[in-house]
Amino acid sequence: MELDDCLVKRHSVRKFSEKEIPPETLGLLIRAAITAPTAGNLQEWRFVAVTDSAQKDKIANACEEQLWMAQAGALIVVCTDDRDLEKFYGPSAKKYAVQDAAAAAENMLLKATDLGLGSCWVAACDEEQLKTVLALPGFVTPYVVVAVGYTEEKAVTKPTFKVEDLIHINQFGKKAVEYPEMGELIKRLVEKGKKAVRKIRHA
Ligand SMILES: Cc1cc2nc3c(=O)[nH]c(=O)nc-3n(C[C@H](O)[C@H](O)[C@H](O)COP(=O)(O)O)c2cc1C
Question: Whole-model pTM above 0.85?
Answer without folding.
Answer: yes
